[in-house]
Amino acid sequence: MVPRATPPGAPKYLRRGKVKEVWELSPSELEFRFTNDISVFDKHIPSEIPHKGETLARTSAHWFELCSKLGLPHHFLELSGPTAMRVRRVRVVPKPRSLGPKPVDYLVPLEFIVRYYVAGSLWDRFKAGKIRPEAIGFPAGRAVQYGDVLPEPMFEVTTKLEPVDRPLEWPEALELAVLETAQKEEIREAILKIDAAMSREVEPRGLLHVDGKKEFAVDPSGQLMLVDTFGTADEDRFWDRGAFERGRFVEFSKEFVRQHYRTTGYFEQLQKARENGGEEPPIPALPPLLVDEVSRLYTTVFQRLTGTAFHPLAAPDGAGVSRPPA
Q1: Residue 167, phi then psi, degrees to nearest 5
Q2: Is residue 41 part of a domain?
Q3: Which span out of 2-6, 7-11, 307-311 was modeled with the highest average pLDDT?
């Protein structure tokens, strides 16, 4: 089928990511339209989560407004609907070195991760013996436990534009992204500043910020700015503070969904396929009851992150969110 022509002045569909669509509003502005889709392990789950897109859009706007108060540059302009936001456009190129003098705003093709507790993939590495306690500040021989507070925040980096995110050592990351060591430190300091402000907000509402990832772009002058989204249940991990103080770990993040696929054995099958270079198994849909539970998780996280009651402004099935031309 031949795509319909975009009317003059109308938004132009550009691409679809894991959970959002990107539309061109002008040469200098884009619109992110958040869907109710969900993904884990770089796999798109064939299930829709009611209200998820709206909670991501509105939570992201909340945190970008915090960045403005902190004086940190970012690409967010405004919410343009309950599931959409206008942002400053940046050029997406896998190899920034190809831009030469880089006379445009361009995306740093990396995801920056800061961890404050032993959890997630860091815990997997400890269990597998791939990382030693002293490598991240614990005494040698320390019996590291799940949920331990890290002696210092752990700053890591992965690829961004590859089919599956790949952990990188810093020399390779800086070479790939054409970043200076000083810019790496600037990114680290910005993330720590944002995360500290986030924690000051969410801890009184009973949450602990465990870890999270962020993305940056660079303008022609070399100034860094925060881009994409962050601080939502998709990008960050939060625990219930009261439960943590009682020795329990109650997830308020997408980790809840990841654990479902670990329990069913799907994650193990996927990992084996990736390690052996075999065909990856398709990810099954979530059971209906779990879909309802995950939807409640996202709305609850929105309320506890923003301190605002969630009253949906968009239809739960995403009705009203534009789709690309047929």
Answers
A1: -60, 145
A2: yes
A3: 307-311
